[in-house]
Specification:
UDP-n-acetylglucosamine1-carboxyvinyl-transferase, Chain; four-stranded mixed β-sheet; 2 domains; 26% strand; 427 residues; 28% helix
């Protein structure tokens, strides 16, 4: 099992190319199940989750062809052709590896009239039920049955039909499944209280490129006019706003100066605002976003929220950065109830953090000290890497398979801008 060793104290400086967004591409890939024509995705990140999803698409009968990314390069391309759906079953062995696998549910029911999908897995950061996904399909006429750990969904004769889907609270995944089901449903579908994340906008834009008709993209109420069929397209995956935010924290915590090439400010307003409040210099250019820090960081108070609020996926990284701020910060996690599992590991490195319910009080310390730590989930992995970059001595991060799910060749990117970091393969 691989681990990563970081020897802290180096100031990071240079340019990091931001990869295609993990949270977007895992939503875009199942779109290929909605058509029998080829769909090509460009700017595809090299991630374990992408490989797992590719194998899941193969399970459903789709052919996949990967190109590019040779000789250490980034930005692969994948062409998917689901000429026919060979299987409407997404088995446990696939789905347990990542929660995003549940996103084949909507496309399979919409196109094939049925789907049997295992209940999902993924990071253990909290209770993330799929009931809103199922209620969305039921609003479009699907019959749902839960049996032996699987969701079984059947469309009525004639397929799904348009309807009104009113979410009681914002759910990114449920919005995504609802959209992919609605584009092939007969008639008009209205999705109320829809998620507005940039990845949702990316999904809508991809579906429109395939021939879907969607109104109010980027707003809380989406209107979808169903089509009999969709066609193929070539679509470029948006840059990863969470990867960009993570490397922005790397610049700040090391007193560095990084250009995040390809990053888009409009996707990251809340994160950039908090970086500025913490004392970092943030400059948006035609190339991307430059983040620099010179001097002590300031404490800030942050509460996670759905977009355009501060993303839950950036909470752990900011916690590591604020562990070295001059003063006390307050972080409140409103999305997931179990997203502070990295706190004890940061404590092993000397951080002073006290958790009470969904809030964490972070008292800045003068220094962090390298230690052997265990990653508990994807973003927690990155928080430990960040702490290691600034810590005195060597930090050894175990269980980095979590990290490989969401950060493309992290050690290569950080090493190129001055970090003393290496991957260690054990056994």
């Amino acid at each position: 099992m691989d681990s990563i060793k970081v020897r802290g104290g180096n100031r990071l400086s240079g340019t990091i190319e931001i990869s295609g967004a993990k949270n977007a591409v895992l939503t875009l890939l199942p779109c290929a199940l909605l058509t029998d024509e080829p769909v090509c995705f460009e700017n595809l990140p090299r991630l374990a989750d992408v490989d797992s999803f590719m194998h899941l698409l193969n399970q459903h009968g789709a052919s996949t062809m990967l190109e590019g990314g040779h000789n250490g390069g980034f930005g692969r391309k994948m062409t998917i052709k689901a000429e026919r759906i060979a299987s409407t079953v997404a088995p446990y062995d696939f789905v347990r590896k990542m929660r995003a696998s549940v996103l084949v549910l909507g496309p399979l029911v919409a196109r094939a009239g049925e789907a049997t999908v295992s209940m999902p897995g993924g990071c253990a950061i909290g209770n993330r039920p799929v009931d809103l996904h199922l209620k969305a399909l039921e609003a479009l006429g699907a019959e749902i049955e839960l049996a032996a750990g699987y969701v079984k969904a059947h469309a009525p004769d004639g397929g799904l039909r348009g309807g009104t889907i009113a979410f009681p609270f914002v759910s990114v995944g449920a919005t995504e499944n609802a959209l992919m089901a609605a584009v092939l449903a007969r008639g008009e579908t209205v999705i109320e209280n829809a998620a507005k994340e940039p990845e949702i906008v990316d999904l809508c834009n991809c579906l429109v490129a395939m021939g879907a008709e969607i109104e109010n993209i980027g707003r809380a109420t989406l209107v979808v006019h169903g089509k009999e069929r969709l066609g193929g397209t070539t679509y470029r995956v948006m840059p990863d706003r969470i990867e960009a935010g993570s490397y922005a924290c790397a610049a700040a915590i090391t007193g560095g100066d990084l250009m995040l090439a390809g990053a888009r400010g409009d996707d990251m307003r809340a994160v950039l605002a908090e970086l500025r409040d913490a004392g970092a210099e943030v400059e948006e250019t035609g190339e991307g976003i430059r983040v620099a820090a010179d001097g002590a960081l300031k404490p800030v108070n942050i509460s996670t929220a759905p977009f355009p609020g501060f993303p839950t996926d950036m909470q752990a990284q900011f916690m590591s950065m604020l562990a070295l701020a001059k003063g006390t910060s307050l972080l409140t996690e409103t999305i997931f109830e179990n997203r502070y599992m990295h706190v004890p590991e940061l404590g092993r490195m000397g951080a002073d953090i006290e958790v009470s319910g969904r809030s964490a009080v972070v008292k800045g310390v003068d220094e962090l000290v390298g230690a052997q730590v265990m990653a508990t989930d994807l973003r927690a992995s990155m928080s430990l890497i960040l702490a290691g970059l600034a810590a005195k001595g060597e930090t050894h991060v175990l269980r980095v398979y979590h990290l490989d799910r969401g950060y493309e060749r992290l050690e290569d990117k950080l090493g190129a801008v001055g970090a003393d970091i290496e991957r260690v393969s054990e056994g």
